[in-house]
């Protein structure tokens, strides 16, 4: 029988397991983000105690390595005067006639659908440093304007 038709085992055809990717750059967090990371580590440690399945243990260990790394490297950002858009700021702006509100947060806290944008997102980078009334050039729209800044951030 040809080697091409021989099946050694199912393990040969499984996808390789990789570590969870760490976002590049600093691990900036808000107070809320810091609490979320700590809670995730605590929850995974509790889950680990009750596991007996080897695959579940491996997956949980991988997740725990990621979150412990994020906990060890987090940098809590202090609030500033809020005069300009910065990390932690909640910003209301108008883009193409529609008004939106977003909060600029860390990578792990980001949830665009909930209005939480990572500080590394293109829109966040475009907003950083802007003051109320500033007009921004973003996404080929020259009418983007910062309406207000609600929460203090670092400038």
UniProtKB/TrEMBL annotation:
Matching SUPFAM superfamilies: FKBP-like
GO BP term (any one): regulation of DNA-templated transcription elongation
Name of the molecule in the record: Transcription elongation GreA/GreB family factor
Domain called Transcription elongation factor GreA/GreB C-terminal: residue spans: 84-139
Organism: Sphingosinicella soli
Region entry Disordered, spans: 1-21
Xref: PANTHER family: TRANSCRIPTION ELONGATION FACTOR GREA, TRANSCRIPTION ELONGATION FACTOR GREB
Biased composition (Basic and acidic residues): 1-18
UniProt-listed Gene3D superfamilies: Transcription elongation factor, GreA/GreB, C-terminal domain
Molecular function (Gene Ontology), one example: RNA polymerase binding
Family matches, as Pfam families: GreA_GreB
